[in-house]
Structures are given as structure tokens and as C-alpha cells.
Design a protein that fits this description.
This protein is an alpha/beta fold and 457 residues long. The protein has helices spanning 4-18, 152-164, 209-212, 220-227, 272-284, 300-308, 327-331, 374-389, 397-403, 405-420; strands spanning 31-35, 38-42, 46-48, 50-54, 63-67, 73-76, 79-82, 86-94, 100-108, 121-125, 133-140, 177-182, 201-203, 216-219, 239-244, 254-258, 261-266, 291-296, 340-346, 348-357, 435-436, 444-447, 453-456. The protein is built from 10 helices and 23 strands. α5 (272-284) packs across α8 (374-389). The radius of gyration is 30 Å and the shape is elongated.
């Protein structure tokens, strides 16, 4: 009997291991709730709703979210974003589909009531060398909710400033720029509804601007009024860039300019547009290097005329490498790895006009990594030094080459990338051709859907 006890214990242990596990009871879902059941939001708002399963310890608490109109309200796991005016129903459904709860969401445009910060000047950056070249950023379609110190308006302008100084020669010469923003309070943030009340731009259509491209009037005189709030003891020419508070493209961006003046309008969130419009056209007086039609150039007198006052350094009607405007770079071995040459096509035309590089910020400016080519960098450098070093400054090629070391490196890296792989296509639509303004009486610049420009005096 003494020996049997261990055997019985082993047998009982073995039998206990062979028993079927006790079944886990299934606790079914008996209901779903959504809190709150109604929301009133403004376009651009984001919030969250809370879903609860009844009972809380139900076996399967999986829930499925949906919106009756994702163009009005989007939802993801309870996080809601108000996209456009209208009504939508957010719903949550249990795994078995037997139980559902809803929240009715109404979205409208917010309207400003506090204009106390309108016209407030913020210095985003102060020049560390020289008297400083003033660049002025203005935003349109922003409301009083965006204007708190350090708030959304200032953050957006700060982000645009950082983008502007990514590419050479602006990166190396950043310390020669003052960057200001002036707060512009619009009544609402709409670019799509009739009666949109903004300060700097005006819709010329029934409110379908955002879906069908440009149809805007830019109030040039109003832009000047805001820009002139910036301290300007040296009486510099205004250099303004206007940004629209839009989630998607409102059409093709553009830049109007004259010697020592520019007004750029950025109609898309795509970042490289500021480099192309303000950096290339506005401050570099550069021409477009892209092609839009397979025709021989017809406006040869325009290109020649622009060249007479120092513009369009990156374009030529001459194809001879010995005579082209950038011939000095083609002969300089220090620029041999940049991929420079004489490439037909530019100023929107495929034939009869030539550009210095296959691609650049003035061509496919949305292409990943695209940079300013050497003739463009030289033109920008000349203007920067002329504005910041004073009238006694004279151009010296070797001084430029020394200052352009970082620019060559940036361009060579881009050239190597495009040789080693097929670069991605355009990420952004090209801007409109630059608009030359030689008349201060122009109060508005109107751009229709098909790109026709009208100057209103």
C-alpha cells in the first residue's frame, strides 16, 4: 500500500491533463453607443467621438467606422476631420452588424470676429550680414483663430521660409535676408463658395475656383498696403509672396515682377513652388525652362528684351556653345560634372529657345531634388550681392565660383541622382509664365481658368 500511493497520484495527474478545457462563455454584444450624437464643426476642425460597446466585457468589441460623405467629414477610429461645408453622418457598427450608433455632423465655415491682429508685423528672421534684403510673406484666407502669437499663421509662414532657403545660393546667403510676415485676417477661410470674403484675392467665378483652376483677382494694391507696414528705411523695392490657406491646388501659381520688385502668388501646398516662383522668377529674374507646346518660339523679341536688363540669364535664342549666355560655364572644368549644355526647349516652347540643363527648378520644379543650375545661381547671386552689398559692389567671376562651392556640390549630387536612376516625374503643376510689370498703376492681376492674364488699372 505504501508503494501504490505514488502510482495513484501519477494516474490522477495524467487523467487531469487529458480533460477537455472548460468552455469560455461567449458574451454577446447587446448594443453600441456613440457620444456625442451631434456635432457642429467648422471647416478644418478636428475632434473625436467616443464609441462604447454594451456590455463592456463583450467577447468581440470590434467596431467599424464610416462616414456618409467623406468629402464633408472623414473618420478614422473615432478621429473626425471637417473637410467641407455640409452634413454627414458618422456611424459605428458592431462586428456582427446587428448594432449601430450614429453621430450627425454639421460643417460650416468659421467667420472671424476679432480683427485686432490684422496688420501685425512679425520678423521671422533678421539679416546677420549687411543691411538685409526684405522678403515679405502674406497669407490669404486665414481667420482670427489662426493669429495667436506662435499660432497657425506664424507656423505656416515659418515653414515656407525654411523651404525657401533649402536651395543654393539662398541657403549660403540666408544671412543676408530679413524675412517678415504681416498678419492678414480674412472673414472666412473659403476659396470655393460664392461671397468668399478675403483680403488679398477675390474669386471671379461662381465659387468653383478650387476645382477648375485659376479664376482669381489678386489685389495688388491691397498686398502693397500690408507689405508697406514692414519697416523699410532703405526704401527697398517690395518683394512679396502671398500664400493661400488651401488644402489643395487652386490653380497655377505665378509671379509678377520688375527690377527690384516682385509679387508671387502660391496657389498650392506643394513646397517647391516658392523656390520656383519667388526664388527663381521674383528674385532671380529667371525664365521658365519647361515646354508646354511643340511649337517654334514666337516671342523672340520678348526674350531679347528681358535679357537687355539682365533677366532670363538661363535662356537664350543662341544654340552655339561658344556664344550662348552661359558659355563661360561650359568652358570651366569646375562645372563639368553638373550636366550643363545647350538643351532645346524653354519659355514654354519646344523649338528655337535653349536652356542650360536638362532639368532644374525652373523646369520640372516639382521633380525630386531638382536644383537651380549654374547660370541661374549666378543670376541670383548677382542680385543678392547688388541688393545687400550696395551700389559699389562689382561682379567678379572667380569670387562667384568660390561662393558657389556649395551650389556646385548640390547640383552635382542632383546630376548623379538623375544619371543613376530615372527620376520621378513632376510632383507639382508648372506655374504660369512670369508677368512683367512696368506700370505702378496696376491695382489687380486677374488670371482666368485658361491662364489669360488681365491687368486692372
Amino acid at each position: 500500500m505504501k508503494r501504490a500511493l505514488p502510482i495513484l497520484l501519477i494516474l490522477n495527474l495524467f487523467l487531469s491533463c487529458e480533460r477537455e478545457p472548460e468552455p469560455v462563455p461567449v458574451i454577446p454584444v447587446t448594443g453600441v453607443t456613440l457620444t456625442p450624437e451631434r456635432l457642429d464643426l467648422f471647416v478644418g476642425d478636428s475632434t473625436a467621438v467616443k464609441a462604447s460597446v454594451i456590455p463592456a466585457d463583450a467577447t468581440d468589441t470590434t467596431l467599424f467606422w464610416s462616414s456618409s460623405d467623406f468629402s464633408v467629414v472623414s473618420v478614422s477610429g473615432g478621429a473626425i476631420a471637417a473637410i467641407a461645408p455640409g452634413e454627414a453622418e458618422i456611424s459605428v457598427t458592431s462586428q456582427d452588424g446587428d448594432f449601430r450608433a450614429t453621430c450627425r455632423v454639421s460643417v460650416s465655415y468659421y467667420q472671424s470676429s476679432d480683427y485686432s491682429r490684422d496688420g501685425e508685423v512679425i520678423c521671422l528672421q533678421e539679416a546677420a550680414e549687411g543691411p538685409g534684403i526684405n522678403i515679405i510673406f502674406l497669407g490669404d484666407g486665414f481667420t482670427d483663430r489662426d493669429m495667436e502669437p506662435g499660432g497657425r499663421y506664424e507656423r505656416i509662414m515659418q515653414d515656407w521660409m525654411e523651404q525657401f532657403f533649402i536651395y543654393e545660393p539662398y541657403r549660403s546667403f540666408r544671412n543676408r535676408f530679413n524675412v517678415f510676415t504681416v498678419k492678414v485676417v480674412s472673414r472666412n477661410a473659403s476659396f470655393k463658395i460664392p461671397g468668399s470674403d478675403r483680403r488679398l484675392t477675390e474669386d471671379l467665378t461662381d465659387g468653383t475656383t478650387a476645382d477648375f483652376g485659376n479664376a482669381l483677382s489678386v489685389r495688388r494694391d491691397v498686398c502693397h498696403t500690408y507689405a508697406n507696414r514692414v519697416p523699410n528705411p532703405r526704401k527697398q523695392g517690395l518683394k512679396i509672396c502671398v500664400f493661400t490657406n488651401a488644402r489643395a491646388s487652386l490653380g497655377r501659381s505665378f509671379c509678377s515682377y520688375a527690377p527690384d520688385y516682385c509679387l508671387a502668388l502660391i496657389l498650392t501646398p506643394d513646397r517647391p513652388l516658392i523656390n520656383h516662383e519667388l526664388g527663381g522668377h521674383g528674385l532671380g529674374y529667371l525664365g521658365d525652362e519647361y515646354v508646354e507646346n511643340q511649337q517654334y518660339i514666337t516671342n523672340t523679341t520678348s526674350i531679347a528684351g528681358m535679357a537687355e536688363w539682365g533677366a532670363y540669364s538661363n535662356l537664350d535664342l543662341e544654340s552655339d556653345p561658344e556664344k550662348v549666355r552661359w558659355a563661360h560655364f561650359l568652358k570651366d572644368p569646375r562645372y563639368a560634372e553638373e550636366g550643363l549644355g545647350v538643351f532645346e526647349g524653354g519659355a514654354l516652347y519646344a523649338f528655337g529657345v535653349y536652356r542650360p540643363s536638362m532639368n532644374s527648378l525652373m523646369n520640372s520644379h516639382g521633380r525630386k531634388g531638382a536644383v537651380f543650375n549654374a547660370p541661374s545661381r549666378e543670376a541670383i547671386y548677382k542680385n543678392i550681392m547688388h541688393w545687400s552689398a550696395g551700389p559699389d559692389w562689382t561682379y567678379d567671376y572667380e569670387e562667384f565660383v568660390k561662393a558657389d562651392e556649395a551650389g556646385r556640390k548640390q547640383a552635382v549630387e542632383y546630376a548623379a541622382m538623375t544619371r543613376s536612376s530615372v527620376a520621378a516625374g513632376n510632383d507639382t503643376e508648372p506655374g504660369l509664365p512670369p508677368i512683367y510689370l512696368d506700370d505702378d498703376s496696376v491695382k489687380e492681376i486677374r488670371v482666368t481658368k485658361d491662364g489669360k492674364v488681365t491687368l486692372i488699372r
